[in-house]
Design brief:
With 260 residues, this protein is an alpha+beta fold. The protein has 8 helices and 14 strands. Bound molecules: adenosine-2'-monophosphate and calcium ion (3 copies).
């Protein structure tokens, strides 16, 4: 299959921009909120409506593509052959419900398992992060430079609340050696912090739609994205995701090895 990454990026940006505008316009509407796996795992009518719309648009423009969507409007996908879109309609649903900021819309496009276009819209800040290996990474129209390859000790570390609270995978030890922990509550927003060099790394237990878009942009900028064992991420299962500068990644790997 031949695809035009630029064309995919252009379309994704237009659809996500419109979806983001819709979310901003309806930010203070009454929501129908339901729980999923636990009381802090939420889904709203807006998550569902946004995914439904994005999936429809992708299907219309790319009928041959497969879609993996968080809220179930996509396809049952067994392998990564061909063009695959990962859709997270609202990343940080808890923030969408409670904070009314720090949530994102994300789509990652992969061709035969290789990332070609990632888009993350930080909806309330109105910052569209987009890019891929063929054209670099941008925040709106401004190109993002690769972050400096700094040490764990020299920067902030984004972490997920549950991992830090339970000190899983020695996360508290990584944090102790860093400049401090940040818990934003949106994998997408955390990815945008790391690709801008605001945070030095981020670690969380995530699903493929949580990391698909961010991984493409992070790798394009020379950041390291693996699971907690240092292995490549499996795009069809949940993973303990570690994204960091190369040096920070190496230092975190050393800490986990010392403990095992
Ligand atoms: P979500 O809002 O799209 O579900 C903080 O909760 C971050 O972890 C968010 O990016 C959230 O994405 C993601 N996440 C992944 N699995 C989750 C789960 N089971 N419960 C809550 N958040 C989850
Ligand atoms: Ca969710
Ligand atoms: Ca998510
Ligand atoms: Ca979501």
């Amino acid at each position: 299959m031949t695809v035009n990454s630029w064309q995919i990026a252009t379309k994704l940006k237009i659809w996500i921009q419109a979806a983001g505008q819709h979310l901003r316009q309806h930010l203070y509407d009454d929501l129908q909120v339901a729980t999923k796996s636990n009381r802090n795992d939420l889904v709203t009518n807006m998550d569902k409506a946004t995914e439904k719309l994005l999936v429809q648009e992708i299907r219309q423009a790319f009928p041959e593509a497969k879609i993996i969507g968080e809220e179930g409007f996509g396809d049952k996908v067994a392998d990564l052959s061909g063009l695959v879109f990962f859709v997270d309609p609202i990343d940080g649903t808890m923030n969408f419900v409670k904070e009314k900021e720090n949530f994102a819309i994300m789509i990652g496009a992969y061709l035969d398992g290789k990332g070609i276009v990632g888009v993350i819209l930080d909806v309330v800040r109105q910052k569209m992060f987009w890019g891929g290996p063929e054209f670099g990474v941008y925040c709106n129209d401004i190109q993002i430079k690769p972050p400096k390859n700094i040490d764990l000790a020299a920067g902030l570390l984004g972490v997920s609340g549950p991992l830090l609270r339970q000190n899983k995978y020695h996360v508290a030890d990584f944090v102790a050696q860093s400049s401090g922990a940040r818990i934003i509550g949106s994998a997408g927003v955390e990815f945008t912090k790391v690709i801008q060099g605001i945070e030095n790394g981020y670690i969380s237990h995530l699903m493929p739609w949580d990391f698909a878009a961010g991984k493409i942009m992070a790798e394009t900028l020379g950041l390291k994205v693996t699971n907690i064992d240092g292995d490549p991420l499996n795009m069809l299962s949940s993973e303990i995701v570690l994204i960091a500068t190369e040096r920070t990644h190496q230092q975190i790997m050393t800490i986990t090895r010392e403990h095992s």
